[in-house]
Design brief:
Blueprint lengths: L16 H32 L9 H18 L3 H26 L1
Length: 105
């Protein structure tokens, strides 16, 4: 197992590129862990949904992306960029869930 590094300073407090890179690497580790949690919910959805056709839910996809847009605005990060990322994430999640659905039947 990889040894944990000291927590880097927050972005505004960084004074070196080494600190910036350490911070980005830490955030990436956290994002991967969160995405693993998110995909575990896709496994649960595949198990719970009654039909394969129920996997794709365009109304829910639109709601998720609208939620992310609002969160991005509140966080003052690029709304369009996050909406595009989440569109790809949701599509990847749907593809993953379809495979999980097929495996479970």
């Amino acid at each position: 197992m990889r040894a944990r590094m000291d927590t880097p300073p927050a972005g505004p407090d960084c004074t070196t590129m080494a600190q910036v890179r350490a911070g980005v690497d830490q955030v990436d580790r956290e994002l991967v862990a969160l995405l693993a949690r998110r995909f575990a919910y896709m496994d649960a959805a595949a198990r719970i949904k009654p039909t394969r056709e129920a996997v794709r839910d365009e109304a829910r996809k639109a709601q998720v992306i609208a939620n992310v847009r609002a969160l991005a605005r509140d966080a003052r990060v690029p709304e369009v960029v996050l909406a595009e990322l989440w569109d790809r994430l949701v599509e990847a999640s749907i593809a993953y869930e379809l495979k999980a659905y097929d495996r479970s039947r």
